[in-house]
Specification:
The chain is of the alpha+beta class. It is built from 4 helices and 3 strands; from the N terminus they run ααβββαα. The mean pLDDT is about 90.
Amino acid sequence: MASYLEKVRHLRQAVKQHGGIWGSLKQLYMRDELKPGTLVGKDRDGNEYYENNMYFYGRNRWVHYAPHYNMNYDASQVPAEWHRWLHYITDKTPIEAPPVDHEWISHHVENMSGTSEAFMPYSTTRPKVESWQPPQKAAELK
């Protein structure tokens, strides 16, 4: 009986953290799970990073993507410094131990494959193989 009461308590805590019933339903729709956790940081894109050590190793750190991504979020939207923390390469968040910032390091950009902004290579050289064009009759040319 005590385990059921504890599950109900965790559910109430998760619902409260996500802004009530409607916020929890939106969370379930967007991410398919409802987990309570402690906000440990936020990156410059607006992604929020959470931790809850009640869950087992490998499931106790997660990210809530920024609202402007809507349902089009993917892992390439997580910057490298937060990727290190999410994947247990380090236990210190980028807020606790900021990464070294050199002027030659570019800012993180998400992978744009499959979008209209994707990189499209082009060639400036003439193709070595040309497609065959059937001969045309003189009557068709006039």
